[in-house]
Structure formats: C-alpha cells, structure tokens
Amino acid sequence: MKRLLSTAAVVAVLSTPALADITIGGDFEWSFQDSNGTSTTDVDADVNIKPSMTLENGYVVSADINFNQDGDDEDSSIQIAGDKFALDMGDVNSALDAIDDVTDFGYVLSNGSPSTDHAGLLTVSPFEGVKVLASFAGDSNYGSTATAGHALGAQFTFGGVTLGGGKMDNDDGTEEQLMNVSASFGDLGLGYEVHTATTAAGVDTDTTSIGASYTLGDTTFAVEAMEAESQSVVSSDEMTYGIHHTLAPGLVAFVETTDDDKTASEETTAIGLTMKF
C-alpha cells in the first residue's frame, strides 16, 4: 500500500544539498523548408535539467541532463568546476569542437565545421582571456561515435579578437586540425575558420568557412561562405544568408537561404521560429 510523504519529509528531501539548485530550461525550434520545390517541416527541441551543488572547498558539481523532442537522451554530462578549471564528462565537446563554428550563425542552414564529441573535456583558464583544452574518447563512448583518441586546443582573446586552434589524434591513425579567428566590433561580427580532416592514408579534406553578421536594433543580418575540398577537388561551395528578428526576449523569427555551386539540389530556403526558455 502506498503512502504519501508527510509535509516535513518532503521539505527535508527538497532541502538536501544535492537538490539545492535545479535549473530547468531548453529551446524549441520549428521550421518550414523548401528545397527545389520539395517542402518539409521540422522540429528541433530539447529540455535541459541542470542540478548543481557546491562542495565545501568551493568546487561546483553540476549535471546537464537533456532530452530532445523525441524523448531521447542527448548530450548529457556532469561537470566539476573551480575558479580556473572545468572538467566535463559524458557526451561532451572535444577540445576542437569546444572552440569551433565561429561562422555558424544560423539556426537551420549554416554549416560551421565538422564536429566530433568526446567523453571527457578539461578546460583550464590560467589567465584572463586564455583557455587551454584537452579531451579524450575511449574505444566505445556514451552518446558518441567518436574514434578512440585525444585532442588538445587553445583559445586566446585580446580586445575584440579571439584566436583558436587545436589538433585531434585518433588511435586509428586519422587526425583533425582546426584554426580560426573571430572578432567583434560593436554590432559587427566576423569569423574565419579552417578545419582539416586527415585519413589514415594521409588524404586531407579542408573545410573553410567565412562569416559575418551585423545587428541593427532587433534584427541581425548574417552571411556564411563554406567550401570543402579534397585533393584539389571542391565538393561543396555554399553561400548562406540569414535574417533573424527578435520578437521578444528568447523569441526569434528567422529566414535563411543557401545554395551550392557544386550541388544544385542544395538550394534551400527555410523560415521558422525559435524560443529559448
């Protein structure tokens, strides 16, 4: 026979240090897309549950539990953080993925760089404006198809300019390298990024992207150019444009369009609405 907890018992449970701070948030995005006369609609949403507790030494231990629109677990992790470091474990960014996508302004159609998650990420900030990152993946990893290996990266910010770079070495002989620079001058944002993926046989695929955005009041205008090339053969040459308008805090309507000189079927227009809570 089930019994209800007394009011005193409920208060005692909710007052434990482990439940001292719980944040619930997330986002919901709906879009209508037309690709050469073929239309689709899409939903991309998730709910984030973030409990945290502060230890006696001042370290903060927090979890990030995520569920997407289909009820599937997504990118969940636990973090231990101090004044100058953070250690994330679970389905987390790699040292490259944590600092990439400086041109990826869009909600649906922009590209950025290829991403690889890892199982653990250590971020150290020894000085203001400096980040040093190290990550790893095992032979089999929760929530990720990453190849076993490790990655190192660094990011430096001075004034309105940020430089980043890193390298990933996988146990199967493949590699990834990343270099980027981004800058912010008032309402103008600029970004440039090169990602190189190298096969075990030494074949490189370079993904180069350039982006810019300008905010005028509640409206942001943005553009991204992306080119993918391997062995002097360009496989993708995309231009993406977007207009994003803030209707209310956390509520944005957007229009984006992209086309690829190498693949006519990539010509797509998307309109949509996104809400963060």
What features would you describe in this structure?
The protein is globular. It contains one helix and 16 strands. It starts with 6 loop residues before the first helix and ends with a strand. A 16-stranded antiparallel beta barrel has the order 1-2-3-4-5-6-7-8-9-10-11-12-13-14-15-16. It is mainly beta and 277 residues long. It has one domain: Porin (Beta Barrel), CATH 2.40.160.
Give the topology.
Blueprint: H1 7-14, E1 21-35, E2 38-54, E3 60-68, E4 77-81, E5 85-93, E6 117-124, E7 130-137, E8 149-158, E9 161-170, E10 175-185, E11 188-198, E12 204-216, E13 219-230, E14 233-248, E15 251-260, E16 268-276
Antiparallel strand pairs: 1-2, 1-16, 2-3, 3-4, 4-5, 5-6, 6-7, 7-8, 8-9, 9-10, 10-11, 11-12, 12-13, 13-14, 14-15, 15-16
The mean pLDDT is 91
What's the total helix number? 1
Written as H for each helix and E for each strand, in order along the chain, the element string is HEEEEEEEEEEEEEEEE
Global shape: globular
In CATH, the homologous superfamily goes by the name: Porin
Task: Please tell me the CATH architecture by its name.
Answer: Beta Barrel
> Which band does the percent of strand residues land in?
over 45%
**How many domain regions?**
1
Order of strands, main sheet, comes to 1-2-3-4-5-6-7-8-9-10-11-12-13-14-15-16
Structural class: mainly beta
How far the N terminus sits from the C terminus, by CA atoms, comes to 39 Å
Helix content class: under 10%
CATH topology (level 3) name: Porin
The major beta sheet can be summarized as: 16 strands, antiparallel, barrel
The total strand number stands at: 16
Low-pLDDT residue intervals, each spanning 5 or more residues: 1-16
**CATH class, anyone?**
Mainly Beta
Radius of gyration: 21 Å
